[in-house]
Amino acid sequence: MGLSINIDVGGTFTDFYAAGNGSGTQLTKTPTTHYDLSVCFMKGMNELARLYGLPLAEMFAGTDTVHYCTTVGTNALLERTGPKLGLITTAGHEDAIYIGRGRSWADGGTPQENRDLARIRKPEPLISRDMVVGVRERVDSFGRVLAPLSRGEVLEKLQILVDRGAMGFVVCLLWSFQNPTHEQMIKQIIEEEYPEDYLGSMPVTLSSEVSPKSGEYTRFTTTIVNAYIQGVMGDEINKLVTELRTGGYRKPLVLAHNTGGMKKASRTRAVLTHNAGPVAGLHGAATLGRRYGYGNVVFTDMGGTSFDIGVVTGGRMKAYDFIPVIDRWRTNIPAIEVKSIGAGGGSIAWINKLMGNTLEVGPQSAGSQPGPACYDKGGIEPTVTDADLVLGYLNPDNYLGGKMLLDPDLAYEAIEQKIARPAGISVMEAAMRIRRLVDARMGQEVFNEVALKGYDPRDFVLMACGGAGPAHACGFAPYLGVTKVMASPYSPVFGAFGVSTMNIQQVWDKSRTLKIFRWQDQSYLEDVEAFNSVVEELRDLALRDLRLEGYPDEAVKFRLELDMRYGMQYNLTRIISPHLTVSSPQDFKNICDQFTADYSAMYSPEAIFPVGGVNVECFYLTAWVETPAPRLAEEEPAGSEPPAEARLESRQAWWGDATCSQNTPVFSFEALRAGNLVAGPAIVEAKDSTYVVEPGWSLAVDRFHNVSLTAGGEQ
């Protein structure tokens, strides 16, 4: 069967995408059960087995891979449900994580919170101050030991932390990324005192292993976040693996990473799973864009809880230009940049009395429990989904392919009581305002994400994904000035689809400062070994790791990226190195030329500053094993006129005028054929999504059954 099953856990729904040779593709959604993710996980698995017409055990027997995007780490941070940890650091630096760095009080805060300077507070630390101890030792910036570590002092400080209730240890010493010997010694002492065969065994996390990079604060926070969520994630993954084994699946569970690849769960650091779902969706958009020859793609995913935005330029996804923030903590992981805002189908509409009774939408979400008012699960707050239902865009009897029934009366009542009456407007006007407001917010955020990076949005293809994305694409696309939007039949589960496009991959990184160009004598670095030794160290780690994944050395491919800057600059610019290793000063010149070109494109040629020299500050070695891209079913064009069976019905929908509705044709997406055109206003109902074709727009289906929405009717 050769089946690949891909799962993406979202805030409202958990999405499933399955594909295999000769078995076709299947997709399904199930409400996310935050109290126990294994419940929605197995519910979706059983639904896939039903769709394939197989017993669960038989489906698992024919499954080659199960790929998984999890949010449990994010939830552990939000709910502060991680273990009580002890931090061991260099004496005199016990307050580093509490002092923070620059505007650390604003890291991860909402714009509203950050504007309220009188009330803003630093985030509550993941490790309380009484659980931090310092040990006298010192390694300098070159890795030389200046003061040795005392075993007796380590044992003394360990006992203090254990007596205070430590359930795990985080070790972060100064300059350990240059010389990890002292961190390794502390780990050895802990393992000797609390061995694995003792009930009191203690997990130990070293900063030199999790984050071997410069930057004391970000290295500390990255390591702490990893340790904090690791135990919770381990419990979840073990539960899922048990469910899979019970069902008959015998192969490893593979986790998606925020670096753009995936690895076995047993070879994954917890911190790399944060925000992996949106990154997977962006990867899927980049893959689909390449299929069509699109180098520049704006990826958007409107789910139930959030609206994700990612940018692909020149066929590449970019890592964060600056420091990614997880929850409220600056980190230094090499994550792919995807922005998320609180704008989804479950976003709550409310009246802001403090701002003159203005209408707001989000960032609060009704989630899946209780969900929008129309779910009839006890929710009373009006949401975007409620507005779409009241306006006639959603079919209350065919939501999620008929698996969930919606109650229009409850949606109407929620909007009337919470929005229409307080604002003194009709329910239909209130619903229209909710929809226009969320569309405007999404459109403006997408515009900013592209334009503020120096690009013209009109040079990009806009891809609308997520269960609610095709329903709102015509609403937010005009804010970018684009007249064409692309959507996929897999849009409702696009994060899960994106996972299927990812390679087995990981990024190994290490800080090392090298001045490769000196302005004073116009010379390039001649010590090629200083550069190559770092690359070889990372390459050896990558090959060792991937061998443990079961892959031969010859299957592994590499790409080297470098964080670089002009001397005396603060911010870094990441480039793809033209050389994996160097053999001469000319190779260093080629690297500098690439840096100058990338820097000029980003900041303008007038901003270059070669007088300061050029430094390499950090090495990133990406190692991957290519996996076959998913095959898209192809069909011959069948003409522009939709077949009769595609026309389902007509129903009343509101289009710009809250005083009257319009009889609007409704089509079945699955019944449409390649080449078919549908002129707006129209509604196209898919199994797990709805395409809203507004007046002045048209919908076209191509040979892969992907959709283009075009303003002005031109295709």
Itemize the secondary structure elements and their pairings:
Elements: E1 3-9, E2 13-20, E3 24-31, H1 37-52, H2 56-61, E4 63-69, H3 72-79, E5 86-90, H4 96-99, H5 111-115, E6 132-135, E7 138-139, E8 145-147, H6 151-163, E9 169-172, H7 181-193, E10 204-206, H8 207-210, H9 216-247, E11 253-256, E12 262-264, H10 276-292, E13 297-302, E14 307-313, E15 316-317, E16 325-326, E17 329-330, E18 339-341, E19 347-352, E20 358-365, H11 384-390, H12 408-423, H13 427-451, E21 461-465, H14 469-476, E22 484-487, H15 494-500, E23 504-518, E24 523-524, H16 528-548, E25 557-566, E26 573-576, H17 585-603, E27 614-625, E28 647-653, E29 662-668, E30 677-679, E31 682-685, E32 690-693, E33 697-701, E34 707-711
Parallel strand pairs: 1-4, 4-11, 5-6, 5-9, 9-10, 13-21, 21-22, 29-31
Antiparallel strand pairs: 1-2, 2-3, 7-8, 11-12, 13-14, 14-15, 14-18, 16-17, 19-20, 22-34, 23-24, 23-27, 25-26, 25-27, 28-29, 30-33, 31-32, 33-34
Helix pairs in contact: 1-9, 3-9, 6-7, 10-15, 11-12, 11-13, 12-13, 13-14
